[in-house]
Amino acid sequence: MPKLKYDDIYRITVDFIGLLSWIGEHGLIGDFGKACIYCEEGRFSFKKDSSWSKDGHLWRCTNKSCGKKISIRAGSWFENSHLSIANILKLTYYWVYKLPSSYIEIQLDVSNKTVVDWCNFAREVCREVILRQNDTLGGPGKVVEIDESKFGKRKYHRGRRVDGCWVFGGIERDTNKCFFEIVEDRTTDTLLEIIKRNIKPGTTIISDCWKAYACLKDHGYTHLTVNHSKEFVNPETGACTNKIESTWHALKLSLPRSGTQKQLYDSYFFEYVVRKKFLNDSEDAFLEFIRLVSTIYNPNSVLIKKRQELLAANSKKTDEHQDMDFVVDEDKENSNPNTSGIDLFD
Ligand SMILES: [Zn+2]
């Protein structure tokens, strides 16, 4: 199947109903044509209606005495944005294929801030994908290379030296599974915690001779080292860390040249990992990213969630009501005829 070209995306977005059915088929918006969660008598029905949202369409309960509405964007990647659905889809396409911001601004007639925001949202999806996977590296028979690298150039800003930050990372040979984390220091405590969280016991770990790694063999790992001040490959074991070295190079190139705040570094690391793991070798990187978006946003679960919220709010009301009944009962007890004496005259 040929990859989707921009012309294809353009064609998908020309007709709004066609666009909705395309993004619906790809799990990007929900199908809310189900029983109304408010009244349970009507059904949500897809309607043309410009009074409420600029999409010109919404879901409305068929029960006239209810008439509750749901946005077609509810729970989706498109929710809470002032942009049209078509433009968001195009922005997503441009992000996947790394088109320059200046080009996107002209093509979609949007501000630089809008483009920057959406690139941030896309990287947040990457972060969620990786964190939810909780996919550790290594295991018996597997080799993982680990290393630390300094990111960010030293700058002299108003006489104050601004240092970059240390990043610790690892990559599994053969699979390219990897992790990267910004670290405050390079002590054993810091690095060992990250290693244990990301690499399974029984793994062969290759590193340089940094003293913090000396304890690895005491924690269930086979540890091989390369002394970089002397050699690139350990002559006895053949160990080398070429893979992580070249990954550092690629990762540094993937960061924007300027204006990247340190706090955003890790989101770029998540983007790098998602591109390496899912997008680069996929049949169609855009469709693959859309699939990841649909797993994170899952708009079809919105009705169920909202229904549960309503039920919880109702049962809270019922509880409060029962509490009141209980109070009334107590009052009745207090007005026990034998103590109040009133009923004695009845
Ligand atoms: Zn209803």
Helix amount: 40-55%
What topology, given as strand order, has the largest sheet?
Answer: 9-8-5-11-12
**Biggest sheet, in brief?**
5 strands, mixed
Q: What is the CATH class of one domain?
A: Alpha Beta
- Considering the protein shown, what is the CATH homologous superfamily of one domain? Ribonuclease H-like superfamily/Ribonuclease H
Remind me, CATH topology of one domain? Nucleotidyltransferase, domain 5
The strand count comes to 12
CATH architect. name of one domain: 2-Layer Sandwich
Report the structural category.
Answer: alpha/beta
**Ligand kinds:** zinc ion
Question: Based on CA inertia axes, which overall geometry fits?
Answer: elongated
Order of helices and strands: HHEEEHHHEEEEEEHEEEHHHHH
Our Rg estimate from Cα atoms comes to: 29 Å
SSE topology sketch:
Elements: H1 6-14, H2 16-25, E1 44-48, E2 57-61, E3 69-71, H3 85-96, H4 101-108, H5 112-133, E4 137-138, E5 143-151, E6 155-157, E7 160-162, E8 165-172, E9 178-183, H6 188-198, E10 199-200, E11 204-208, E12 222-226, H7 242-254, H8 262-279, H9 285-297, H10 302-334, H11 337-340
Parallel strand pairs: 4-10, 5-11, 11-12
Antiparallel strand pairs: 1-2, 2-3, 5-8, 6-7, 8-9
Helix pairs in contact: 1-3, 3-5, 4-5, 5-8, 5-9
